[in-house]
């Protein structure tokens, strides 16, 4: 019996067949177990005579099973190690790689251009109060300009109108926050998200603006024009940028100037630069600007007879569209990789 069991165990070639043999020999109804049970019914002499052989059988079988099991486990491990070997010298597959979103990219470009002109970056909260977003900017409670802003107000706001919270409708409140915390001279840009209740191909309820503010002594409209021209030339990477300054109105600037930039038609496409006349191109409005209103300077605790300045504000998404020839503003915020790839923004 012993040699047969040991031979079977040695020949078993899977963990399952070893287990079947173990149950057959040492399990509750196994042959070796049955022999061990006979010991109980033996006389002491008989037990002394046959006991050692039965015990030896049990130990030999249990030992052989353990050895065989270990050998099979080792073999399985060796096979796995061989099959799953990784060649560490192969180049890795990095998977899809993302890229900086066009809007973020344009904001970075703008920050860089203005850094070269000595402007630093200022920020303000997107959840703003009525005073910073409107009143301090010379847009009092009853001013019609408020109607044009399609403001998102927070519902259970303060009874005091000045503290009423809203989503900022433009980056201009950062002008106020900067003038109230920084001593002039001031040269800042403020890029960020703004919100208006408006949605179509050229409007999204959230969009991006960049504000510019300069406060110093003796600042004139000439400084504004030079700054905008320099910035637009750098941004569109062309020397033939032609500006058209149109008189306009913003409550917080006086005088106010709307700025158009000339485009040329190339194969029916509007390309920024050159022309500006109706024959082979035209004008695109790119930003609002003006000399900071003396009342705004006063509202921030500065003396308007000593300090003057200019401010401008423009849509970052719009600048991105013009630079990269994109047509639908909403696509900026859809997260559609095909769109990003089409414009060369994603792997
Ligand atoms: N805040 C204005 C807007 O959102 C733009 C602007 C900024 C105009 C600064 C003048 C000066 O339309």
TrEMBL record:
Record-level Gene Ontology MF annotations: ATP binding; magnesium ion binding; phenylalanine-tRNA ligase activity; tRNA binding
Keywords, comma-separated and alphabetical: Aminoacyl-tRNA synthetase, ATP-binding, Cytoplasm, Ligase, Magnesium, Metal-binding, Nucleotide-binding, Protein biosynthesis
Reaction catalysis annotation: tRNA(Phe) + L-phenylalanine + ATP = L-phenylalanyl-tRNA(Phe) + AMP + diphosphate + H(+)
UniProt-listed GO biological process terms: phenylalanyl-tRNA aminoacylation
Residue intervals of the Aminoacyl-transfer RNA synthetases class-II family profile domain: 104-322
Binding site for Mg(2+): 254
Domain of life: Bacteria
Family: Belongs to the class-II aminoacyl-tRNA synthetase family. Phe-tRNA synthetase alpha subunit type 1 subfamily.
Identification of the protein by name: Phenylalanine--tRNA ligase alpha subunit
Native organism taxonomy: Bacteria, Pseudomonadati, Pseudomonadota, Alphaproteobacteria, Sphingomonadales
